Give the backbone structure.
Amino acid sequence: MAKPVKIDTEFITLGQFLKLADVIQSGGMAKWFLSEYEIFVNNEPENRRGKKLRDGDVLYIPDFGTYIVKN
């Protein structure tokens, strides 16, 4: 079951999302996290911290879980 993460804007970047979902403690950790861990957005591998995530996008991070963006 995907954990919903609520956003108040039209989109959120992957780096901001990781912080909002409490996967990382600070935005500065995003670049390091993306180089160390696999992240899948809608079943596609993704490593750009500026990737725009919108309502309904599903993120899967092995060992962390599955998240869904909710607007």
Remarks:
- The chain has one domain: 3-70.
- The chain has two helices and seven strands.
- Strands lie at 3-6, 11-13, 40-41, 44-45, 52-54, 58-61, 65-70.
